[in-house]
Please model this.
Amino acid sequence: MTVSDGLWDERELIVHCARGKNFCTGKTGTRLCFIAASYYDNNPGVAGKYTLSETINMLRDVAVKERYKKLFYGIDEGRILFGFDQKHLGPRAVGYTWQAAYDARLYHTMIDENIDYFSHWAYTTSGILSGALSVAAHTADLFYRMTGSIRLPEKYETAGNEEGKVGGIAAFNKKQNKLYVLFYAYSDSVFQSGQREISCELAGLGKISGKVKATRTLISDDSNYFDELLADRAKEGITQKDFGWSSDSFVISATELPNAAHLKLFRDRIPYYMSCSALKPVSESLTVKDGILNIRTEIPVHGVSLYEIALDSVK
Model:
């Protein structure tokens, strides 16, 4: 629990496992395979005491020093503790589309910092299994599509005061002969609106010239049921005081809505919310010239967009 200073120093456990007496074997040292931590920000857009990188590296630095050099590192619980109403977030995430860009930035950090996994509390209106998919689930899905790909080197140039608000990852899957390019537009302000212009150049595609087929999938308010859910809440006169845990949660359960009538009302609407949360991929044609592919696009603030580009479709 690196998030909770003062209880004990978890780094002492790593040192003990390396140097201390193992009371099972009677020998010095204990085998470790992985180290799992907790990581939390306080509220949406309000960072916690430690960043994700700091949380993992304060443990990894000690482990490497103690000669644990091939461990898996991950987060067993985390993201965001409280909603705007200062109540606990059941899924430790909010339903606003902002969560999509937050998660994309988080996954980007994991790739940069060689962090192996991040466990989530929930993905849907029902938690893990059935229900309408949250934007958190959509973002996880887009990143999962790049599994098996090799990350490509990247360089950023950002205009004006937009620094840090747009990020991207490019990867190539040799087996599929497919390029993946993912963009996201993050802002600390959950309710900020607008568009971000993006210009991306991918070089080194050999002698390819011509048109290639691409599929673009965008996570935005149009693929998020939470705005419809908020409208239903307002229509029915359900307010923050009617919630047990945070009203900013995307999960619909008795923990969030203790009133059985309120809970039934929203659960009966889940088929509708599922239709509101559907992703809508679109087909595009992109131009490659002398092995260079240029993408010019716009993405809404808090949005996440994935291009899947089939290089064997060139014409």
About this structure: The CA atoms of residues 254 and 260 lie 7 Å apart. The first strand starts at residue 34 and ends at 41. The chain has seven helices and eleven strands.
